[in-house]
Amino acid sequence: MLKQILSKLPRKSSKSDSRDLNGSNSISSNAVSNNGIQRSLSGNAVSARSNSAKRMSSAVFPSSVVAGIEPLLSFKDVPNQERQNLFISKLNLCCVVFDFNDLNKNCTEKDLKRQTLIELVDFISSGSAKFTEPVIAGICKMSAVNLFRVFPPNYRSNSSGGGGEGEDDEPMFDPAWTHLQIVYDLLVRFITSTSLDAKVAKKYIDHSFILKLLELFESEDPRERDCLKTILHRVYGKFMVHRPFIRKAVSNVFYRFVFETERHNGIAELLEIFGSVISGFALPLKEEHKMFLWRALIPLHKPKSLGIYLQQLSYCVTQFVEKEPKLASSVIRGLLKYWPVTNSQKEVMFLGELEEILEGTNMVEFQKIMVPLFQRIACSLNSSHFQVAERALFLWNNDHIANLVAQNRQVILPLIFPALERNIRDHWNQAVLNLTVNMKKMFTEMDNDLVLSCQEKLEEEEAKLRSAAAKRKVTWERLESAALSQPVTGKTAVLVTPAATIAN
């Protein structure tokens, strides 16, 4: 087999042969004249079949027919003026997609393609490549053929976009990564090259190309998502004309994830990109950017898989608050809107993010939301889940938050004092009990009169509640006695008490 392939290697043509060949810069050309590169018949077959090659990954949908590949000459074996043509020919050669599910299938051809891809990367890295329009078109075509593919709905049956039950699952690795990795490397070097003219390249790296890149963030392979993160970030930086479209397209991904599917593997990576993008926003912030915060970022607190991308989401949100402190009250209202009621682990996450936001909140914005905020914190203080109660009590370990509370204690302490008292009386966890006692002691040292006032008010309210409960009990007893004393006639409803049931 190897001898047959080696026998088909292109040879340098004679002078008489070279006069009969015509050079070409087109993407579909497999021959280069004048330098002595010979066009082989099998090379033409590769080009013809590569045009019809499936664009979906062979790792997902195995291709039924795979064209063979034969290597072209090395770049060092041709004159400098012909290397661009050879570069395009090699790009065409790499447009064949192989089936990587079968490790024993087309092994030689796979290795030859991999070596060719490495040659292309080295050629770009050396700075020898001139990114003419045919070269740009060839790179984009080769990248699209190898990278852009459709993931089936059952690509991973128990996948929930990294959420909930699937959080601890082992990641899935694409068997075609040996080729995909080099294609991604080539694409990164191509986009980041200083010699690339963005005005020409934007015709090929267009809106359709960007949308296809975004679709790839659904990949289960974390290595691929990491490469995509780098590429999309570089595209955002290189092509200023595409920036509004990228922001809108990513917003649409978030909308679908939050309000429709709650399944997506690349939310963390997309948020990581936008963390860098947001830090570069100019002041004052545009209305478009604020809408992105309110409509896209804040609702991302809703899905149950929040824990997987919480770190990146918190960074994006705090970046907005740091740039424009007036947004703090709106952000906290958004957190309160999506505050978890039955998910204790999410509540711990919310309290952690709340601390980060409050750390950048000034007094004016704090006073706008302190009443609903500390009504919610009071509920967390009384949580029977000790981690929630403990995390809420730890808020006072932050000096900035403690200072905000101290200056507004006349409003805040009456809201949380009943919760503190209930913890001291009834909470089962000793750590929560100790922290609560320490907090009450801190407030007592800060303003003893206010604490006594809150204590008296709490005792009065509890007395009223006991009195109301006693009255209800007496009223029910009277109703029961009246019902028992009246004879039952017809279809009259009967109130049966436990005592009456036993007597019967």
UniProtKB/TrEMBL annotation:
Keywords: Cytoplasm. The B regulatory subunit might modulate substrate selectivity and catalytic activity, and also might direct the localization of the catalytic enzyme to a particular subcellular compartment. This is Serine/threonine protein phosphatase 2A regulatory subunit. Signal peptide: none annotated. Belongs to the phosphatase 2A regulatory subunit B56 family. Residues 1-35 are annotated as: Disordered. It is found in: Cytoplasm. GO terms for biological process: signal transduction. SUPFAM superfamilies: ARM repeat (SSF48371). It comes from the Eukaryota. It comes from Stephania yunnanensis. InterPro entries: ARM-like, ARM-type_fold, PP2A_B56. GO terms for cellular component: cytoplasm; protein phosphatase type 2A complex. Residues 22-35 have a biased composition (Low complexity). Its main location: cytoplasm.
